[in-house]
Each structure stands twice: as C-alpha cells, then as structure tokens.
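Batch job 17 of 40 flagged for manual review because the log was empty.
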Amino acid sequence: MTKGKKKALIMETVLRDGHQSLMATRMKTSDMIPILEKMDDIGYYALEMWGGATFDTAMRFLDDDPWERLRIIRKRVKNTKLQMLLRGQNLVGYRHYADDTVREFVKRAIGNGLDIIRVFDALNDLRNMEIAADQVKKEKGHLQMCISYTLSPVHTLDSFVNMAVEMKKMGADSIAIKDMAGLLSPADVIYLVKSIKEKVKGVLIDIHSHYTSGMASMTYLAAIKAGADIVDCAISPFATGTSQPPTESLVAALYGSPHDTGISLEKLAPIAFYFKDIRDKYGNLFVDIGVDVNVLLYQIPGGMYSNLITQLKENKALDKLPLVLAEIPVVREAMGYPPLVTPTSQIVGIQAVTNVMTGRWKNFSKEVRQYFLGYYGRPPAEVDPEVRKLAIGDETPISCRPGEILPAEMEGARKEASAWATQEEDALSWIMFPQVAKDFLPKKFESADKGLIE
C-alpha cells in the first residue's frame, strides 16, 4: 500500500456467527468442507469458525465433534487465520469453569489449530478474562480481548476506552468492540476508535456489530475512516438481519478508496452462491427478521428476541411479548445493568418473562440467585438491594473472582469420560456439557471404532 493508505481487513463470520445468528447454529461440518479452500484463497484477515454456540449445538443437534471440526478446517485452510469466540471463564458453556479447565481448553484449542482467540465476559469483568488471556499468551496465540458494548447510565464511552487501556496491560494483541445488539452508532464508534487509538498504541482494533438496527454498515464505514483495522462481515446469504453486514457490500464500498480491502468481488461470487444453496437447504431453520427498531428501545440481541418468543409460545402467552419487552429494562436496572450477551441475556430474559407471568420479583431462577450471589462476576453497577434480598435472603455475595473458589475439574472429568473417550479433548466436552456428552461420546466412540471419523 502506498503512503496514506490503510487497507481495511475483513474477518468472515459465516462459519460461526453468521449461521448462529440466522440459522440457530445448525450448519454441519460437512456443509463447510467443500468451500473451505476457496475461502482460504479470498484474502480474509481471519475466519471465525469456532466457539460461541457452535460447540454445544455441534454435539447436541448435529452429531458433530467440535474438536474434529477444528482439525478438519485447519487441514484445509492453510493461509488464513482461524478465530474463535470464548466466553472468558465460561469458555463455550453457560457457567464458570475451574481455572484448570480454562487453561486446558485454551491449550487444546490452540494446539488443534486456532490462531486468534477472542475473549469476552458478559459483565465486562476483566477478572473473568484473566486466566484465559494468560493461557492464550502462554500458548503463543493471538489474544483478542473484547469489550461487550452496551448502553446504560454506567456504560460511558470513556469507560470503554479505560477498559481498552487495561486490556493492553493484560497482553491484548488486538481489541474487539463487540456490539452484539447493533446499538453502536457511527458517531460513537468514531469517538471510541480515535480515543482507543490515542491511548492504546500498537494494538489492532476490530469492530463487531449486528445488522439488527440497520446501522451496522454505516458504523463500519465510520469506524474504518476513524482508524479501525478490522471489521467482521458475513458473506451475503448469511448477512443482515441479526447477523453482520455483507462482506461483498463492504468490499464494493471501499473499492478504489484509501481503505480498499484488496479482495476480489469475482472471487467472492462463488462463495456467495455456495452459501445460498446451504441457506436454502436449511430454509426451515433460517430466520431473518430484517431491521427491527425494538433493539434500539430495549437493547435485545436477535438471539435473545427469538428465545423470548419461543418461551412465550411454550407458555401460550405470546400476547404478553410487549409486556416482557417493557420489563427487560426494569430487570436489567435491578441487576446492575449487565450487557445483554450470553449468558446474561438469557438470565435477564427469563426473569423478565417470570416477572410478567407470575408477578414482579415473586420468583427467581437458580441463575438469577447465582448472579446476585456474585458467581457470574461483578455487575457493572450496584444492584437493587431490595431485589437482591428477595432473591438471596441473608446470604452474603462473594467479592472475589468466581473462578478462585471453584475446585479443579480436569482429573475427575478424565476418569468419568474415560470409557468413551477417543481423544484427550473429550474430557473438556464432558465438563462443559455433561448430559450432551453422555449421549454424544458413545456414538462417536462407535464411529471411531468402525473407522468412520476422519
């Protein structure tokens, strides 16, 4: 690139967040294999292909081994970095896991072929990212630390800038601004990018947004012009709606500009055609809500919105949806304004439904009680003391990092999974999803015994 030009980098999400957002994470490894070598030839900065809900759903619904998926993709993708999304101390599950489990998971993930691990925490509690971040550096992986972007009286733009400064101290090679609900505006992203660039030197900035509100493409363009290095996009058949902006549109918009991606639209065309066929194959699962301004009013990510609808349908109470949407800000304020991302989005959403169905603060789930006891980490703001007392009575919340008080898990899991284990990684699958693994591992064991696994 000539002086004054800065190539924009694209991280492609179709193999993870694209189908997680629009198709309930149901894309099988076998659907990915035929197109991988062509994707490797595009010139993407990275391919996000692991983590998030892919681990759970691969075993639960697809009879796919997530570890084998990683190895298969790594074997075929030789030139492009592979990336995953890691929920800090929650790894790819829904509770906190012991430190030995976190370290072993990161070790195995990088050992099986991952280059970049994006680490986030649902509460933006940096303590919950410490162990994973430290292990990524020990394994010589690329540590991308992640700000979960949200709006509230305590989530100021400057608070996010200060968080980025702390992430740099923790060893971050890059920093992602993760806008899971599509709330980030062009004006705010300009301030964030410029301020972080000014205070945090030598760190790449990656912008991740969802198209739900309709702002994401505009926000990406503003971010790139402000100095952002990477933006997360999805190939067009798996873009927009609650997914990311389309890869091809951004490539076209930047063509011939100082931020030209260098990616060929002609090479992207067969990728798009391929994934259109995959989308059509799973047509009954594909959900595209288009632009939904409710996200700007209630800050609800697309996955959370669909989960609420499912819960209400099961209770034959879909007519209560407007009441639930209005209850979510009430619950969120009482819980100290947690960002709405897994697992806090589920925790807040279930409590909002419970409040509407049974009366406000009459009943609490186990997860809400655990939240008020501090087992998910430190809330961004003080919780409502009266609601906390209703939830946990006279119990005293913990103040330490939750992972500190969890006993080691790996040795016990290795013993429990030993009868069906075909690889060391199976113990990790057992820890995170024991009920699913008890069904999945015996079937995989039989397939391996018959020589059916690649």
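Reviewer: the log was empty due to a logging misconfiguration, but the result itself is present. Residues 280 and 417 are 38 Å apart (CA to CA). Unflagging and moving on to job 18.
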